[in-house]
Amino acid sequence: MKPSDRKDAVNPFGKLTFLVVDDFENFRLSMRQMLRSCGAEKIELVANATPAIQYCTYNHVDVVLCDYNLGDGKNGQHILEELRHKKLLKRSSLFLMVTAETSKEMVMGAREYQPDAYLTKPINRAMLDQRLGNLIRQRNALLPITREIDRENYPEAISLCLQTLPTQPRYKTWLMKTLGELYFLVGDLAHAQKVYDEVLSQRELSWARLGRCKVLLANRNFDQAVDGLKELIQKHPDYMEAYDLQAEGLEKQGRPAQAQHILEKAAEHSPNALLRQKHLAELAGTNQDIDTASQAWRQTVSLGTYSIHDNAEHYLSLAQSLSDLSENNPDEEAVERSAEALSVLTKMEKRFADDEAIGLKSRIVQCRLHAGQGRHREAEKLLVSVSADIEAMEALPPDMGLDFAKTLFRLNKADQARQILADLAARFDDDTDTLQKIENLLDEPVGFRQKLEARGMNRDGIKAFEAGDLEAAVDAFNKALSIVPDHAALNLNLVQVLMKQYAQNRNPVLLANCQQCLDRLSKLPEQHRQHRRYVALSRKLKGLTA
């Protein structure tokens, strides 16, 4: 052993750089004294998040000791979140959360960003020397591996893990976990699964079970993965990564409602994870559960106040969901939601004042809010300014164009809305996601409550048709079409039922009704999913009337 290595083993604190973050000066000074007595030499003290993040931006830090509660502004969770997001902490760096608070909500929220350990106040020198000393010794022993990971030289990191396993048995758990993650990163799923299976054959460890399920998902073994994650959550209900992965698996199975339910359970256990709240909000919106979506967006906006993940789109999505809930609804709760949406948009404009597009997006939603509450003069006045700004734009972004078209439909300006959607479809003809959204809006240019009502009637019509009750099917489809008369699938569903009735009684009125349905779809874009069906039924009707 070299003399320098012996010195490092005796005093593992010596060469490292420490950052202490705490809003109480006495605690900062006390920590510096304890660290010095442990052998530390390079120690920086800061009071809150701003200088902490700034220091990490321009300096390498080996160990961060950060208090959770830092007074007003960002807390320790926000600092850890930002350091991880900006990659200001190397894999070899240690982050210890220091706190007098041990509430489940705090611990669960902080754990989302994987601190290396928690230190509970009050802290004495012996505790610091033992807990931190052990972590530093592990860090030093595994430094060659973490350096290669920081360099993104994953094959070399894998090779070093395999070399270290026989010589450092005390760190076997860390090495196997890292090895599984590295194999997954480089796409070697077979070796990743082999690592996890080997660990699980000796001991049931949550991270190994999660890793195995992750491999199963990547290999499209969705059923096995979802079942494995369900079992993992039953055994370890606080293991949040399992909820996220199970939701992903359920979505890939085409079960978005069940995926939403899992994320709701996760949010109950750990309510302070912004990105999970955002995922829940998006999923609930897709499921047309606007109440849950608005609550999750509300939480996302709230958590974003001091978060690196704060985004104007969160405010906008909250306002849009509140607009949907308040539209054409005069009751007191709807009025309150409309007022809340306007308040959210005002905050958004102030918070993101440097972004010119934000003001325009805000006015588009405001216009819809006023129209939804019967304030047509305010809506029309806003529409004039919005239309002028949009006409002056070189190219309308798809998200803004879709939302503007939605507003135009609500203000009974359907022709203008359809023109905007046609222009978007032509510009983004190779963007399947945008085309799908355009198609959905063309089919259902109404409020979400009306959409749900029409969809329910459509389901009733399909059930009646499958049961052979053609009269009930016709009745259900006609009721749905009274809400969304241009809905392609609904019109074609009715045509099919009417043709079947015609085959039974040869009543020419039935064919005339078919023609009316098809005439409504005469301008159906070729990109529409129902276009081929429309063409086929048009030809069939032509054959019947010839």
How do the strands and helices of this protein lay out in sequence?
Elements: H1 3-10, E1 17-21, H2 25-37, E2 42-46, H3 49-58, E3 63-67, H4 76-85, E4 94-99, H5 104-111, E5 117-120, H6 125-141, H7 143-150, H8 154-167, H9 172-185, H10 189-202, H11 206-218, H12 222-235, H13 240-252, H14 256-269, H15 274-286, H16 290-303, H17 312-326, H18 332-351, H19 356-372, H20 376-391, H21 398-410, H22 414-427, H23 432-443, H24 448-466, H25 470-483, H26 488-505, H27 508-520, H28 531-545
Parallel strand pairs: 1-2, 1-3, 3-4, 4-5
Radius of gyration based on Cα positions: 30 Å
Tell me the name of the CATH homologous superfamily of the domain at 3-141: Response regulator
Unreliable stretches: 1-7
The count of β-strands is 5
Shape label: elongated
CATH C-level label of the domain at 3-141: Alpha Beta
Summary, kept brief:
This protein is mainly alpha-helical. The protein has helices spanning about 5-10, 25-35, 50-60, 75-85, 105-110, 125-140, 145-150, 155-165, 170-185, 190-200, 205-220, 220-235, 240-250, 255-270, 275-285, 290-305, 310-325, 330-350, 355-370, 375-390, 400-410, 415-425, 430-445, 450-465, 470-485, 490-505, 510-520, 530-545; strands spanning about 15-20, 40-45, 65, 95-100, 115-120. It has a five-stranded parallel β-sheet, with helices on both faces.
Protein model, in words:
Helix content is 70%, strand content 5%. It has a 5-stranded parallel β-sheet with strand order 2-1-3-4-5, sandwiched between helices. The longest helix has 20 residues, at 332-351. Among the domains are: 3-141, Rossmann fold (3-Layer(aba) Sandwich); 311-443, Serine Threonine Protein Phosphatase 5, Tetratricopeptide repeat; 453-545, Serine Threonine Protein Phosphatase 5, Tetratricopeptide repeat (Alpha Horseshoe), CATH 1.25.40. Helix 3 (49-58) packs parallel to helix 4 and helix 22 runs antiparallel to helix 23 (432-443). It contains 28 helices and 5 strands. The termini are far apart. The model is unreliable at 1-7 (pLDDT under 50). With 546 residues, the protein is mostly helical.
